[in-house]
Amino acid sequence: MRIVAIVDASFEEQIQEVAAFFSRSRPEAERDEFIASFQPKSSAASAESTAAAEAKDGSEQPKEDAAQQVPLDERRALIEKLVAEIKDAGEGSDKDVEGAHNLLVSLIVDAFEGEEGKESELLSKIISVLSKTGSAEKNAVKYRVLSNIFNFLPPTSPLRYTTFNALLTFAASNDELELVSPSLLLLPQWLAQWQISEAQKEQCLASVSKVLNENGGDGEDQKKAYGFQLLYLRFLSSQQTSVEKAKEVAEKVIADAIRLPSIFDFEELAQIPAVQALKGSPAGDLLAILTEGSAADLKTWLGNNKSEAQRLNIPEAELDRKARLLDLAGLCAQSVSKEITYEQIAKTVGVSEEDVELWVIDVIRAGLVSGKLSQVNKSFRVYRSTHRTFGKEQWHALEERLVEWQSAISNILGTLSKARPAAAASASATKGAPAPGQNAASNGERISVA
């Protein structure tokens, strides 16, 4: 469905208004001539004819419909000429800039309805001009105009893809990704709607992943970037992409995930077909260690694949840290609602007991575990812990815990049911009896004296 802009003015008035706005970018001596060059010839001829008729018989002639006064071919020619003259966003207030562009887009869409190729060409020119870097003070209105164009287009329009890419690139070049971040959540839905090729969809996801990865800020931004990398990798897995390309992207995502300090959940990544195809390769084996291996396994891998770690640009220190924290989280996952000693933690992480508290604090900050340290007892009580993977073994452990909880609750209910009759009997025996030290009068009875 196309959004239609309703403007209560003739084509001549509209094209002159837009021309007058863009004339501000020209030398003052040229402005009048520039505006006059967009005077429709048919309108001028019609005006002269009407004036002659009125002068002849003295009566006012009815004005024809604006669209009929200016033939379609002439309207299109004037619009093309005007778009060709646009070199920048224009001068004036943000309100003026936005209004002029909205009106011009409306004119293009109205005049070139049914001519998608030409309409796309003209709108693409405007999008290209707006997405050029320039005065930072005009960035906000440029974003609004580009967003207006995006929303003006039908949901299936391929030009939405072009507009989105322009917005993304412009925001990234100005270090203002927060302006487009909320829209990224809708990108999968948009990609399903846009009438573009699979190659263009792949390119769009690759661009978003690259921009977010290069411009990532805090932990949340990094996780968002990683999420789009997973989306891109899944898309490649669903397409007839070359094996080498899928392998290259999969290895890059694995390396990026390891480098990102806030990423510890590798199970989702490991389940993507393009990643599973790496099984048996150094990168595939490394991911397997992080999902189900140990720091000791990592040490062995590094001994055999030191050059691979360098090729993937993965710092060994970050690899070692993640492996140890995941080992510690695994130990805690086996002891939820229980206490584990400093000695157990030191043995699992491979450090001295003096360093245990630092590692526990680190694993808590990573969001893998929650609990309470006891320096007096040299123990750590686990409240919650994250599993690396959740498979058959974890389901079995969960079942055992549920059975334990059920048994404990049954014992509590049994104790309460036994205590209830005794409590009721005690209450009946004491009902109505004076409290210790209380006499009959104070118990509410009257004593009469004759």
TrEMBL record:
Keywords: Cytoplasm, Initiation factor, Protein biosynthesis. InterPro entries: COPS7/eIF3m, eIF3m, eIF3m_C_helix, PCI_dom. Residues 32-70, 425-450 are annotated as: Disordered. One of its GO terms (molecular function) is translation initiation factor activity. Component of the eukaryotic translation initiation factor 3 (eIF-3) complex. Belongs to the CSN7/EIF3M family. CSN7 subfamily. This is Eukaryotic translation initiation factor 3 subunit M. It comes from Tilletiaria anomala (strain ATCC 24038 / CBS 436.72 / UBC 951).
